[in-house]
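Much of our argument rests on the idea that a fold can be written as discrete symbols. Part of our work consisted of pairing the sequence of a single chain with a tokenised description of its backbone. No coordinates are needed to read the tokens, only the vocabulary itself. The record that follows shows the chain in one-letter code together with its fold in token form.
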Amino acid sequence: MLKRTTSWGFSLGVSSAILMTTVFASVGEESLTTVVHAAAEKTLSEEEAIALAKKQLMLSGEYKLEMAKLEDSYEHLWQKAMWNSIWNKKDGGSIYVQQDARTGTIWNYTYPVAEEDLGSNEKKLTEDQTIQVATQFLERVATEEERSRLSKPNEYPDPYVNYYSAKKGTIVNFTRIENGIPFLENGFRFRVGSNGEVIGFERHWSEGKLPDASKVIEITEAEKKWDEGAFPSFFYKDMSSRVQKESESYQLVYDFQRIDPQVVDAITGKMLDS
């Protein structure tokens, strides 16, 4: 097996080449559940990780594994080691896959091709078709239990929307819901190309304990705290990155900086900065 000593990462917004239609076929509910519990707490071997990637992504014989590498350096980012792999397709293009090294769960998936390959057909898919493509992919990379705790597609704003704004494809975002409360930074995010394929996928799923939602203060009290304690700063601001202009988009604004109290802790009622 070819091994590389240089480290490499995933560009989470790159595009996709052509996937076989069978990639979007449904799989049994038991398959991913088996994947998630297969490894317990031990680190998967290369052979186990490869087998689980092929099973979840339904990679047929036209995909050849170029390399697989266990990366412990992702501990600071994901709090877990990851198996990284590259799969080459016979007629061109490569798939990049990132998996939890203990469970084999897919955390990132990208399929890079030239951006111009998607540009000519950018409006080919309807919104419903785009959501259907993402939903079918979701059924293979998330358990039934995880999917039961998700919002409707694009029900809540994507906190990473600025990252994706300049990239090809259409974003479909499923937000994690706990106790009826959205967890905006958690969920599953897809980038679907106009060719009807998932060209980028990310899992964001925190495993730590969440606060007790039964102890929150009333919204009227939170509003009072915000009225009394939240305040922005007054300054000149370069708005080019927000309004997508080239340069010299300067405005006088009232805006919150990191040191400005702006958030009400829903349990203690204290004002917090960002």
Q: What stands out?
A: Residues 73 and 81 are 7 Å apart (CA to CA).
